[in-house]
């Protein structure tokens, strides 16, 4: 078990040697440490007093007495600093008396002692103020860090909830399309067929129009099913990402009447179905942007393993993104970037020199 005075929470922050020394001194806790500080201050006072006595009046050592005073203030308290300052002045007076230094007036010795004590008191006040300000700033930083950590955690929780609500609404809309609108269109197509048969029995001129309406309704049914399928695909199995992307490419070709290819030369398996779902949604959004904004006629989807990462790319031959969208102001781009961030994946979107856009998502394996 680590002693409390050596715990990580009590370690001084990094800095230069001098700052680190005083911070380590100021962070001392416990009676053992206090005794060490007291012993160190006493030794320094006696050592400086001895040197002062040996050097005599030719070299003043009053400034060096501030070392034990500073040690007492930082290691104990300002009161201990005052006591140490009084001890320093007393030791100096004793040394002066033992050395039998002669002054023209004995008041000069006491005047020097008062000046030294006053200087020490001012320095004690300054040092204590700096230490108090430092502790207050550290406490504010700790509090602000804790608040930011809580805020980030709350934001991440809300983002996750929003994504869950979004997926739930996708499933609901998909079910409504499949069960409600799909059934309604199917009934309309059957009614149109009955109407066409009746007009055919009468040899009416409106018969071709009736069958044309039936064809349009059947096309609407097919589009509704495709939309419902994409919306109902709320979660992809980790082993099913490759199949889902292949089906997405095929569906894009059929619906948009363009060339959409999918390339995956090896078996790709993810550990997390959530990651697979986000990658699929990113691909969906990238294809949507390529068709709607880029007017692309060719889209290439690639899924591969590279340098310990799973790399998903979507390349199109469209007109490319406008500068504002390339800077990330588009809602679709922000959604893709957010989905990538939720699975700790890197996300980039680049305009190609010869036209088109390249969307890249790198997921650590």
Topology:
Blueprint: H1 17-26, H2 30-55, H3 66-75, H4 78-99, H5 107-202, H6 207-232, H7 241-256, E1 259-263, H8 273-292, E2 298-306, E3 309-316, H9 323-326, H10 331-342, E4 346-351, E5 357-364
Helix pairs in contact: 1-3, 2-3, 2-4, 3-4, 3-5, 4-5, 5-6, 7-8, 8-10
Number of separate domains: 2
- Biggest sheet character: 5 strands, mixed
**Strand residues, percent:** 5-15%
Which consecutive residue ranges, at least 5 long each, have pLDDT under 50?
A: 1-15
Number of strands: 5
Shape, principal axes of CA atoms: rod-shaped
Using the CA coordinates, give the radius of gyration: 40 Å
Helix proportion: 55-70%
Q: Helix and strand succession?
A: HHHHHHHEHEEHHEE
Quick check: average pLDDT? 79
| Backbone structural class | alpha+beta
Tally of individual helices: 10
Distance between the first and last residues' Cα? 36 Å
What strand order characterises the main sheet?
Answer: 1-2-3-5-4
Give a structural overview.
With 365 residues, the protein is an alpha+beta fold. It has 2 domains: 4-153, no CATH class; 236-365, Heat Shock Protein 90 (2-Layer Sandwich). Helix content is 66%, strand content 10%. It has helices spanning 17-26, 30-55, 66-75, 78-99, 107-202, 207-232, 241-256, 273-292, 323-326, 331-342; strands at 259-263, 298-306, 309-316, 346-351, 357-364. The protein has a 5-stranded mixed beta sheet with strand order 1-2-3-5-4, covered by helices on one side. Strand 1, helix 8 (273-292) and strand 2 form a beta-alpha-beta unit. Helix 2 runs antiparallel to helix 3, helix 3 packs parallel to helix 5 and helix 7 packs parallel to helix 8 (273-292). The longest helix is centred in the middle third of the chain and has 96 residues, at 107-202. It is rod-shaped and about 140 Å long.
